[in-house]
Design goal:
This protein is α/β, with parallel strands linked by helices. The protein has a 5-stranded parallel beta sheet with strand order 2-1-3-4-5, with helices on both faces. Helix 1 crosses helix 5 and helix 2 runs parallel beside helix 3. It is globular and about 35 Å long. The mean pLDDT is 86.
Length: 149
């Protein structure tokens, strides 16, 4: 277990096109009162630009964790996951699928594409916040993340 003195803020990239889910995730991070920095992009193309530090994201920090929705415009979450895990510079970044889909084929496919976790979003606000907090807590206090350059 990581000691509190070892805890450093982590950079989290949320890839989510639903403004309501973005708001709930943001509130969950704020209520957790941790210094984690949440960055938000709304489609897969933007996610890859952020991760590769292209265009307006040239100065973006490299995320320590990606929270990825599957159902995205322009480039869906499966394509983003494939691109991340296929890129030697990005593949170490843990990716948590955070989606409404409970379909077994989505779960299986996500793990086949090397997702680090698959979490189904609860529809209830309080439950949603609780789940996001648990993911945040797990990656902040339990898991040791590599320093990504």
């Amino acid at each position: 277990m990581i000691e509190p003195s070892d805890i450093r803020p982590i950079e989290v990239l949320l890839v989510e096109d639903d403004p309501g889910d973005v708001l709930m995730t943001t509130e969950a991070f704020e209520e957790n009162k941790v210094g984690n920095r949440l960055h938000v992009v709304s489609d897969g193309v933007e996610a890859m630009a952020f991760l590769r530090r292209e265009g307006k994201y040239a100065d973006a920090p490299r995320p320590d964790l990606v929270l990825l929705d599957l159902n995205l415009p322009k480039m869906d979450g499966r394509e983003v996951l494939t691109a991340i895990k296929g890129d030697p510079q990005l593949r170490r970044i843990p990716v948590v699928i955070l989606t409404t889909s409970e379909a077994e084929e989505d779960v299986l496919r996500s793990y086949q594409l090397h997702a680090n976790a698959y979490v189904t979003k609860p529809v209830d606000f309080e439950q949603f916040v609780k789940v996001v907090r648990q993911v945040d807590d797990f990656f902040l206090t339990v898991v040791r993340l590599p320093r990504v350059q």
